[in-house]
Structures are given as C-alpha cells and as structure tokens.
Amino acid sequence: MFKNYLKVAFRALGKNKSFSGLNILGLSLGIACSLLIFLWVHDERGVDGFHAHKDRLFVLYEREISPDKVDADYENPALLGDELKKTIPEVRAAVTIDGDDDFTFRGNDQRSGERNGDKTIKAKGGYTGKDFFSMFSFPVLGGSAATALSGPADIAISNTLARKLFGSAKAAMGQTVRRDLKTQWKNFTVKAVFDDMQPNSSLQFEFLINWQAFYAEHPWMQRWDNSGPMTVILLQPNADPTRVAAKLTHFLDKYDARPIPGYHAELMLQPFDEMYLHGNFKNGYLSGGRIEYVRLFTLVAIFLLLIACINYMNLTTARSLRRAREIGVRKVIGATKGSLIGQFLGEAILLAILAMAIALIAVWLLLPAFNSITGKQILLPFTNGLFWLEAAGLTLLIGCLAGSYPALYLSSFRPIAVLKTAVRTGTGAVLFRKGLVVFQFALSILLIIGTIVVTRQVDYIQTMNLGYDRAALLSIPMEGDLIGQYTGFKEQALHLPGVQQVTYMSEPPTDIDDGTVSVEWAGKPTNFQPSFSFASVGYDFTQTMKAQLLAGRDFSPAFPTDTTGYIINQEAASLMGMRDPIGHELNVWDRKGKIIGVINNFHFGSVHDPIKPLILLFVHRMEDGHILVRTNPGQTAQVLAGLKQLSRQLNPAFPFTYQFSDDAYQRLYKSETVIGTLSHYFAFLAILISCLGLLGLAIFTAEQRTKEIGIRKVLGAGTAQLFILLARDFVLLVLLAFVIAAPVAAWAMQRWLEGYAYHAPLSGAIFVAAGLLAFAIALLTVSYHAVRTALANPVKSLKAE
Q1: What are the tens digits of pLDDT across the range 614-638?
Q2: Closest CA to 203 of 272, 121, 280
Q3: Which residues of 644-708 form beta strands (DSSP E)?
Q4: Which H or E run contains 153?
Q5: Of the candidates 244, 232, 240, which has an alpha carbon nearest to the alpha carbon of residue 87?
Q6: Cβ-based neighbours of 554, under 8 Å, separated by 6 or more
Q7: Banded model confidence at residue 112, pLDDT cuts 50, 70, 90
Q8: Are 206 and 161 in contact (CB under 8 A)?
Q9: How does DSSP classify residue 91?
Q10: Burial (CB count within 10 angstroms: exposed 0-12, middle 13-18, buried 19+), residue 651
Q11: Which of 34, 42, 133, 138 could form a disulfide with 145 if both were Cys (CB 3.0 to 4.6 A apart)?
C-alpha cells in the first residue's frame, strides 16, 4: 500500500510539473530563509554558553538611586571583586575586568631574528584578576590556568599574538613583552598563552594583564566612589543565587557612603551568559537588548514558514478539480477517507522532503554571503546528529501543516458528485482559502512596513545633524613620540596640502564615556549631585570639529588663563540653571576655572540615548588620547599620504594608524544596519511566496468560474470587464490584509522606535507606500491569469466539464 501511495505521489508531481515546481519553490524559499534565521538565532543564544561553570557565573550590575532618577550599568568599583571573595562565603572566585582597547607591544620574533624591541604590534585587551582562567572556559595552550596572572608583571597572550611576537605559543612562554604606557615602556612576562577567543564569546581579548598593574596605572580607582570596571563572580557549587543576591543589595552601603541625601547604590546579579542578549537598562532595571532582535527574527522565521505552508495549501487546492475524479474512483473501489488523508499528507511530506533538500543546498551556498552581512562565522552542522533530528522534525511539521487542509478538503469529495458533475466548492471552503491569502499578505505587509521603518531610521541616523561635521574628520592615536612632539606635528601637519585644522581630544568624538559628579558651581542646590560627561581637548577644538559656539570663544593661546578654563554644552548650562554662563566659575576635582564658551549640543554617543551635559577642559600636554585632523573634501588620500610620512619622521617606532569619525559612527549602529539589510531580503521573499499563494487562488477561482466567464463573453462582456470581475476580489483581499496589518505594524514599530532618543517620524506615508506596493504586486500577480482567462475561447469554456 505504501509503495502504491509513493508511486501515486511521484506520478502527481510529474503530471503537474508547473504546479509542483511552484509548490517546491515556495516551500524551499520559506524553509531556506527560516533555516538561515534559526541558525543566526541559535548562534546568538549560544554566546557565552560554552563555559563549564555557566550555571554559577554571574555578572554584577549597579543601580544608583538618587532623589530624581535611577540609573544602572555594569560599571562597578574596581575594589569590589576582591572584597566579595573576602566577605561572602558563597563567592568561590571573582574577577574584575577592565579594558577593550588597542595597546602597543614590542617583542622578539625568533623566526626573523629581530632583536627584542624591534617588532611593534597593536593588540586589543585589558586587565583582570588571577581567577580569570579558572572561572571561564578559555583553553590555555601554554602555562597554567591557576598561575597565569598571579603576579603584577604577568601577562597572558592569545595564540595569534604569541605567533606574531615570538613565532609560536611554545616560544612565547617566559618571554618579556614591553607595553607602551605613553610616557614609558613597561616589561611584562608571558606566563600563559590561551587559545584565540571564539566568536561565540562576548569577551574578546588578545591579551590580559594582572589586575595589580591596573591599580598601578590607575591609582584613583582604589577608591570606592570611583566606578568603571565590570565584576564577575563564580559561586560555590551549592550556593543559592537568591541568597547571595539578597546579601549584595546593600553591600556597598558601608563602602560608598557619599554625603548625598537620598542617594544609595545597590548591587544586582545577572547570569553571565544572559548579559550578551539582555544588556540594556531602563529606569535602573534590565530592559531588553539584542534579545529584541532575536525575538523579532524568530517571528519572521515563523511567518515565512507559515506563508510558505499557506502557499502550498492554496496551490494544492487550486489543482483539486484535476484530481476530483481520481478521488471519486478511489472511493468507489473502497478507499476510506482516512487512507486518502494519509495519501495526501504523504504527498505533502514528500514535497517537504524535496523542499528541505533544496533549502539545505541553498543555505550552504548562501551562508558565506549571510555571514558577511551579519558578521558571523556560522556553519551548517552537518556532523551534528541533533541538527538532522531537528531538520527531520521540521520537515515533518511543515509537511503535516501544509498538507492538512488539502488532505481534509480533497478527501471530503463525494464520489457520486465528482463522477457525475463538476465539483462545486462550498462558501465555507472559499472563505477559508481567502482567509489564508489575507493572512499571508497581512504578514507580508507587516514585514514591508517594518523594513521601511528600519531603513528610514538607519538613514536618519546616518544623515542626521550630530552638531558637528563628522565628514573628512579623522583621528590618530596619540602614542609614542607623538605625545612629546604634538606641537611640532600640528605645525607641520597644518602645512600639508588639504589639512584645514588640527587639535587633540582625550576620547574619540563618537565615544565620550568618562563622567563625574565632582562638579561645583555657585548656587548649586545642596542635595543636587548630577553626573557630567567630560573630555580634555586642545586649542582649535570647535573649529576642527566644526561645532557651533553659541556664546564665548574657543580655547586660545592668546589667553593664558584658558589653561584652567571650561567650555560647556547647552545641556550642561541648562542643568546648572545658567542663562549666561560666560564668566561663571566651575570647580571640577578641585580645579577651579571660569566658563569661557558654550557649545551647541552635539552627539558624542549613541542616539539611543539623549545628549548628556558635557564639560570640556583644556589640557596643555596630553599623555593619552587622539589627534583630530580636519581635511578638505576630495583631498583625503593626499592628506593621508602626508600624515603617514610625517608620522614616520616623528614617531618611527609606531605604525601610522587612523580612523575616520564617519566609520567609527557607523560602527555604533552595526546591529541596525544588519537588521535593515536582512529585513529587505526577507520582506521581498515573503511577498514573493505570498504571490505564489495568490496565484494559486487566482487559478482556482478562474477554474471554478470557467462557464460563467464563457456565458458572460457570449452575452457581450468585454475583456476589461472580465478582468475587473476576476481581479476585484483579490484586490479587496489585499486591502483587507492591509487594514489588519497596518495598526499592528504601527504599534510594533512605535515600540521599536522608542528605543531611540532621536528617531525618524512614523508618518502615514510609510503605510500608504507599503499598501500601494502590496496592492501593485498582488495586481501584477493575478493580472496574467485574469487576462488569459478573459481572452479564452468561450466555446471551449462552455464545453468544459
């Protein structure tokens, strides 16, 4: 029996090649897109999930509660990790982690025979405690995990960095590397070499230095009222996280007793492997993060599968008339309804198997491009047995879901009716199929509106006025001899063709994240302790940035008192209640000076957040930071060549490196750009698959109305009238789908845009454009078959059974 059903299934596929092709194409597209999304979702959810102790690893975040607001972030006092180990028995190990910066090292490459100090390498890394490698599951290739960072001069480096500096991991052990501390070089001993950190780790370091070195370089961080690093703890095997969390709530009360009425700080626990996806805060509590994109695209994958399954239902029932007599004959010779349902479900499952095979090939071919878009390194897990079980389960689910309605519908034909007369479809069945098309197009319109909104927001971010001109602005790290020779560098750089202005800044203009509450001014309320962002700058800062001075002036060597002066932004002036700030005195960290200028509010971080109050102070000699160079449009290449030559002359030990402010700004919104790009592709494929389903319904309707159309033609109906008759219903279906989808899309997109302090407006034009696009695509889909039916010979139509 099974063999016979299999023969019938293959015969049905071969007999209706065009419909079989459309069915397989629709299912293949839906499955391929869904597989790509599910692989991406699996990769996202798997970040940090490989650590052996993940169930006992927790990251701490701090809630700062003030009378006027509640803030939260992962920045903790640097002393916290060691203190937790001493005072809370449930804490087995703890580390404080700081830094994700590019540092410069020198080492000895034994392969080339270079002398120690001749080879300069830039690497990204930071500082952490000695428990790091015993807490996290990063393989150690050389040395011991227990002693890798036990001394203040110890360093652990990655396998790649070891090969660059010393030729191999083995050769690196015990060697000395010298790190640039801006004013001097400091020696560190390689005590361990760890395997390169994998993409599924949220921590990405090429080197790690013992935590005591951090204190030596940042002595002010040994105070409880200074925060910055991140703290991670490992609990004892039988420890209760709830009890530990209760002990941590008021842990800081006895250490950070700031004399601010109504202020206190609380520590909260979060599983470490949840931080990557749940890393945003709102009103002092965790509030989403990348998990929003994971949930969004999980829904998109489900939508695409549903659209593909509905497409199969419509196309299969559209061919039901061709198989009506076959079903009648089978029933006459004894076939039961159950056996017929089994047959048609089997055909659907067979089709799903073929579609899955094609989809897997498509995913394998598309993965390199998909990885390029998403920045992932996803592979199809062909050797993973669980993957094949999941694929088989998905195939079975799709086959049963897609084949359920056609099986029930086709098996319900009465043999006498189908053998004697043509099949007529009941009102309920017609409404059900139309409902499927409405559902398909509603999902597609949702994706179209979402794609338009995301694209507009990405474009808005990329083109919005930031308050300064980021075009043709590049930054050069201030390191090595450039620190002492900045004045000479600036003088010579200004003589290069194409250079407009030069200044320096302690942090890049797209990432000013230093803050302080130690700001005093006349008339400040007693219990008012707001936080200010701050940055150190040099002469000609506003001119180089092309920022607007609203009052006062820029720092100038013509005014010796500017060395203690301040420039503030509008937000800072408003916060301090100053209508005319020029000449008012500020005291920042006991550094008294007068406000000499007010600059316009400019964005120095993500537009997810509102602009913060900013204080700019002049520093005569910068020992760290970035040189900012403003170039003339069209002369960038010429300027870079000149700057490279100048850097080689003044700073020969360091390679010339730079970055454009535009590129740094774009990296802030990498996730939005990826989401926007993927949305384009998936929305297009969703509407394509939906159109296949609409085509199926158009064919079914035309076949049901063959004789009606013939009679109308005989009575004088023209082609245009018949076209309108056939197309009108489908246009109404798309209109109904739009009415359903538009309010849902408006609610969802408004919520998404609320995550940005600055966003493009959610205008009605977006919905009109999406509706017109769906309308036009639907009309084009049904036009061909409607015109073909309208032009058919009425004699043949009336003879049709």
Answers
A1: 999 888 777 678 899 999 888 888 8
A2: 272
A3: 659-660
A4: none
A5: 244
A6: 539, 540, 541, 542, 543, 567, 597
A7: very low
A8: yes
A9: E
A10: buried
A11: 133
